[in-house]
Write a structure and sequence with these properties.
Immunoglobulin-like, five-stranded antiparallel β-sheet, mainly beta
Length: about 220
């Protein structure tokens, strides 16, 4: 086959190899993520509540394994009494989102743990029209010839529609990654915000049912 005009990297991450974390390993991951959330607690209105953590399927890119998660802070913002409008609207729900990554040592033990987190007050509870609840973070970069390239992006999500069995990350009609929906959750790794191939290109996430019918589409930027 001849060279392709748009050599986007495809399926650059390993498929999930482990199940959902539990026991002491889950506790260790939770401590790492809570430590990453701690500097944000004053602005977010409260620390991460480890009891609310939801872990997503891990994916391996490069030499590191990434385990994404979401969790909740306090139900209301700290820093004074809410005004009348805020009281009428109810408590503000704040969500932390982030990941813990690690390397596998020669003995197959996790090593060099790192964590990154951020928070948002834009949640699924306030957006009943959402069909996918998405979180994402840039974990690296991709460079092609010249100034062409993009961001290697970790994406994790919750289907808000029934029947989803698989998720794909699509860039301008080309599938760059796919994953099964496990326990109602999925994780993808794909190049996003690609520049140098005409207009900038951005990933869309699609959900599919058992008949391979598309049942939901969301952009990372909506």
């Amino acid at each position: 086959m001849p060279p392709v005009p748009r050599p986007f990297p495809r399926f650059i991450a390993d498929s999930p190899q482990e199940g959902k974390p539990y026991g002491r390993w889950e506790d260790r991951l939770a401590r790492e993520l809570a430590a990453a959330c701690e500097p944000l607690a004053a602005e977010a209105g409260g620390p991460l509540d480890p009891e609310t953590l939801r872990w997503f399927p891990e994916r391996t890119w490069g030499d590191r394994i990434y385990v994404p998660a979401t969790g909740r802070a306090g139900e209301e913002r700290a820093g004074g009494q809410p005004d009348d409008a805020e009281q009428a609207a109810g408590p503000v729900v704040l969500e932390y989102y982030g990941w813990v990554s690690f390397e596998r040592s020669a003995e197959r033990e996790p090593a060099e743990l790192r964590a990154h987190a951020d928070f948002t007050d834009v949640t699924a509870e306030d957006n009943p029209d959402w069909r996918i609840d998405l979180s994402d973070d840039v974990i690296g970069s991709w460079s092609a010839e010249g100034d062409r390239g993009g961001d290697v992006t970790l994406v994790w999500g919750l289907p808000m529609v029934r029947g989803a069995v698989a998720a794909t990350a699509e860039l301008d009609g080309e599938v760059l990654d796919q994953a099964a929906v496990q326990d109602g959750r999925f994780t993808l790794v794909a190049v996003d915000a690609v520049r140098g191939f005409g207009d900038d290109l951005y990933v869309e996430i699609r959900l599919w049912d058992r008949t391979l019918r598309e049942i939901a589409t969301e952009s990372l930027y909506e």
